From TrEMBL:
InterPro entries given in the database record: ATP-NAD_kinase_N, Diacylglycerol_kinase_cat_dom, Lipid_Phosphate_FormReg, NAD/diacylglycerol_kinase_sf, YegS/DAGK_C
Signal peptide segment: none
Keywords associated with the record: ATP-binding, Kinase, Nucleotide-binding, Transferase
Protein name: Lipid kinase
Gene Ontology CC: plasma membrane
Any one Gene Ontology molecular-function term assigned to this protein's record: kinase activity
Pfam families reported in the protein's UniProt record: YegS_C
Keyword Chloroplast: no
């Protein structure tokens, strides 16, 4: 998608020429992919606010980051949280949640890290539950989302599991890698280990905390230029 979540997680350059060099390096690895009922996804799936905004964004004739941001702000004021039952090998629990995200990769895209510790080669889902919060919490939460620190927020619960069932009162919207779809009241999410082959660059563990912030800054600049036809 436009956020390039999978490429960013794998360290594949967004620049096409630099990305093509990775093809020539021919370094292939086996990565996990996941399913939500019968729908395949590579990065994230989820229910709640992010799925709702994805639907509203898809309905809008305008595209781009500013449109998405506008939708998120306006829909936040109207959104009603739901209660979900979560079932995994560790048991069953009820959660009233703003959103529930299941991450195979670490981010939605555009360096928004909803599951910062996710590893696409561990055979597990990283589940992030964001509980209802006040408007005063939005600023710190946004900073943590873009600096890989969201799992340190006291209003957020995270855990790993090989599979999970998300059960709600009735069928509704969910997103699959950012695309809104209608799904049953029960959603069975599972990880398929090593089922995806990909060409990737050599790992770079020397990235600093400031790099995601710099990347987001330039993404915003590019988005504004596109929206204003500069």
């Amino acid at each position: 998608g436009s956020g390039n979540g999978l490429a960013r997680h794998l360290g594949i350059p967004i620049d096409v020429v630099r990305a093509l060099k990775i093809v020539n390096e021919n370094r292939t690895v086996a990565l996990d992919y996941c399913k939500a009922n019968d729908k395949v996804f590579f990065c994230t799936c989820g229910v709640g606010f992010d799925a709702w905004v994805s639907m509203k964004f898809a309905e809008d004739k305008h595209r781009g980051g500013l449109t998405y941001l506008r939708k998120a702000v306006t829909e936040y004021m109207k959104y009603k949280t739901e209660t979900y039952r979560l079932e995994s090998k560790d048991g069953s629990v009820k959660e009233k949640a703003f959103l529930i995200a299941c991450g195979n990769a670490s981010q939605y895209g555009n360096n928004a890290y909803i599951a910062p510790r996710a590893n696409m080669q561990d055979g597990k889902l990283d589940v992030t539950i964001i509980r209802p919060f006040t408007p005063f919490d939005i600023g710190p939460l946004a900073v943590q989302l873009f600096t890989k620190l969201i799992d340190r927020n006291s209003n957020i619960k995270t855990f790993e599991t090989e599979s999970i069932s998300i059960i709600r009162e009735k069928p509704g919207i969910m997103h699959i890698d950012g695309e809104p779809i209608m799904m049953d009241a029960r959603i069975d999410v599972s990880c398929i280990p090593g089922g995806l082959k990909a060409l990737v660059p050599e790992e770079n563990n020397k990235k600093s905390l400031i790099e995601p912030i710099q990347s987001v800054f330039w993404d915003v600049v590019d988005t504004i230029k596109t929206e204003l036809n500069i």
